[in-house]
User: Fold this.
Amino acid sequence: MTQQYQQNTINQEPGAPVNIAAAAPGPDARTLSPGEGLIVVDESLAQLDLTLPLAADAPGQIITVQNFSGTNSVTFATQTPDTISGAGTALAVANAVAQFQSDGVATWVQIV
Assistant:
């Protein structure tokens, strides 16, 4: 099955995989919405900065990001007052998976 990337498209059905291609010249930025669980990233053209939804809006949700390009990294940030395991940002290197779970209050716990 061939996957087609939908640049500048984030909001899809809850639970449906979201495909994101970073736009050149970059860096490119997107804010994720509650309900987006699997994010497939192609950032071969530019670095991608993803902002997680508020943890309080996504209690217990797990977000998995597969960064399959070997060129750039993906930076994760939070909205105020949230943190990622006590920090403000996290990084997924090229060809890596990052996974976060909301505590339902103000923290995203980085699982992988």
